[in-house]
């Protein structure tokens, strides 16, 4: 029985984890942030790295260190009903309802749509592209034992080659200096907190709780079976993959800033990538971009389908088989992808604002649980109060027409004035701290079991 992996195996596992994390959304958001943050990019990128790199690393570490068999086992520390609720909500969000459809739609919008003719048949092009995209995803996801080969050894290196072409051409020929680019919007007033919340859009902290089980299984498949060794190997692999993500985020953000001498700030990161690719590389640049984004999204979709199917088989052992879950999730993702990228992003934001505080507090409780013996009262109070504040964030970030229909504008305004940090999207912090204090008090006064 091995105690640890070889250096080569570490690289493969870290590459696989990076490949599952890093999709087209991870390119879209930092390049747009660079364009609009301008000279405030350093504060913005620091906030972005906390939620885009730091939290995913802590999520992988939480699963490894707590020796949990996936998210359901970890969230079970709050209670069994909550474990079913949170696990289903998280996996459906980073799976067939938002993240997987976004993979296909983003790769089409940012990549192939820039090359294809712009006419009234765009819906048909998207339909055909998403059909092919999910056919490939389905084939790869039906053989989960090959995920290390598909993602770690093939797709990730190809993706990095394509990305390197774009990044280094831009960085070697900057069109302006960082200090010359004026920050825009919220990045002018609060660049750090705006970057912090922008990192939510990557969904990587949520994904880290989902991918942890895949990493553990791959490590065990390579011969490391002792619980302590699996935990440490998981953490080390997470550090390697997150370091690589951090470097790429910084380079892509710089790419966005340095492009502003020749380009106006784009309405979104997808358009920004297309404009940068065409400016520096011409028509060939659009082809490189299409290949980069499609590979990035494909490998992420495979990782998400695999994780979702394995988790639902574990949660509902008398339900569908792994193979059938793969078909169900792939089919739902295909249908929702054809709704369009704008609608997917619009409705994803409120859900992410709801789930992220719950994920952050669960990760921190798992990492620090040995200080209070993973007492359920602490988990329950922190999670319960965070849940209330997170629901407020969901209501606050709903599209305007939905808030009007639900008649919650008055409630949102009232709570926003009373809840500390609510205006910067961090209203859950004080309730979480209050829950921690109450939980620790309950633990302290409760009679000790013999």
CATH class descriptor name of the largest domain? Mainly Alpha
The parts where pLDDT drops under 50 for at least 5 residues are none
> What would you give as the CATH superfamily of the largest domain?
Amino acid/polyamine transporter I
- In helices, the fraction of residues equals over 70%
What percentage of amino acids are in beta strands? under 5%
Secondary-structure blueprint:
Layout: H1 7-21, H2 25-37, H3 41-65, H4 71-75, H5 80-97, H6 99-111, H7 122-141, H8 147-172, H9 186-189, H10 191-198, H11 204-221, H12 227-258, H13 269-315, H14 322-337, H15 341-368, H16 376-396, H17 400-406, H18 409-418, H19 429-445
Helix pairs in contact: 1-8, 1-11, 1-12, 2-3, 2-12, 2-13, 3-10, 3-11, 3-12, 3-15, 5-13, 5-15, 6-7, 6-13, 6-14, 7-13, 7-14, 8-13, 11-12, 11-13, 13-14, 15-16, 16-19
How would you describe this protein?
By secondary structure, the chain is an all-alpha fold. The protein has two domains: 7-339, Amino acid/polyamine transporter I; 342-450, no CATH class. 76% of the residues lie in helices and 0% in strands. It has 19 helices and no strands. It has helices at 7-21, 25-37, 41-65, 71-75, 80-97, 99-111, 122-141, 147-172, 186-189, 191-198, 204-221, 227-258, 269-315, 322-337, 341-368, 376-396, 400-406, 409-418, 429-445. Helix 11 packs across helix 12. The model has no long low-confidence stretch (mean pLDDT 86). Component of the transport system for branched-chain amino acids. This is Branched-chain amino acid transport system carrier protein. Belongs to the branched chain amino acid transporter family. It comes from Dysosmobacter segnis. Its main location: membrane.
């Amino acid at each position: 029985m091995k105690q640890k992996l070889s250096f080569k195996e570490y690289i493969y596992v870290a590459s696989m984890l990076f490949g599952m994390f890093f999709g087209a959304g991870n390119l879209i958001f930092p390049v747009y942030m660079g364009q609009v943050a301008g000279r405030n990019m350093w504060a913005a990128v620091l906030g972005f790295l906390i939620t885009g790199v730091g939290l995913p690393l802590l999520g992988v570490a939480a699963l490894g260190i707590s020796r949990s068999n996936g998210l359901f086992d970890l969230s079970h520390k709050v209670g069994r009903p909550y474990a079913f609720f949170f696990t289903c909500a998280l996996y459906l969000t980073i799976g067939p309802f938002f993240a997987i459809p976004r993979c296909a739609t983003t790769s089409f919008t940012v990549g192939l749509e820039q090359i294809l003719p712009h006419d009234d048949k765009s819906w048909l092009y998207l339909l055909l592209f998403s059909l092919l995209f999910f056919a490939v995803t389905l084939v790869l996801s039906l053989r989960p034992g090959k995920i290390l080969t598909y993602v770690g050894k093939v797709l990730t290196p190809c993706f990095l080659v394509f990305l390197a072409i774009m990044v280094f051409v831009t960085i070697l020929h900057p069109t302006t200096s960082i200090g010359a680019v004026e920050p825009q919007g919220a990045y002018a007033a609060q660049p750090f907190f705006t970057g912090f919340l922008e990192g939510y859009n990557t969904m990587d902290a949520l994904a880290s709780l989902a991918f942890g089980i895949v990493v553990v299984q791959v490590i065990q498949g390579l011969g490391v079976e002792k619980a302590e060794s699996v935990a440490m190997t998981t953490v080390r692999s997470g550090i390697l993959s997150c370091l690589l993500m951090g470097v790429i985020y910084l380079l892509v953000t710089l790419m966005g800033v340095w492009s502003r001498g020749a380009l106006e700030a784009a309405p979104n990161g997808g358009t920004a990538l297309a404009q940068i690719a065409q400016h520096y590389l011409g028509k060939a640049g659009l082809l490189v971009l299409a290949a980069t984004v499609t590979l990035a999204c494909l490998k992420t979709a495979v990782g998400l389908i695999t994780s979702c199917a394995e988790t639902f088989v574990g949660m509902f052992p008398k339900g569908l088989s792994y193979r059938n879950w793969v078909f169900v999730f792939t089919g739902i993702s295909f249908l929702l992808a054809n709704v369009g990228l704008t609608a997917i992003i619009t409705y994803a934001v409120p859900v992410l604002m709801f789930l992220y505080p719950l994920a952050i507090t669960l990760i921190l409780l798992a990492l620090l649980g040995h200080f209070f013996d993973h007492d359920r009262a602490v988990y329950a109070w922190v999670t319960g109060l965070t849940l209330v504040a997170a629901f407020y964030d969901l209501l606050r970030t709903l599209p305007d027409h939905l808030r009007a229909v639900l008649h919650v504008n008055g409630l949102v305004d009232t709570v926003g004035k009373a809840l500390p940090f609510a205006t910067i999207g961090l209203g859950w912090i004080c309730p979480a701290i209050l829950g921690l204090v109450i939980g620790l008090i309950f633990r302290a006064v409760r009679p000790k079991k013999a």
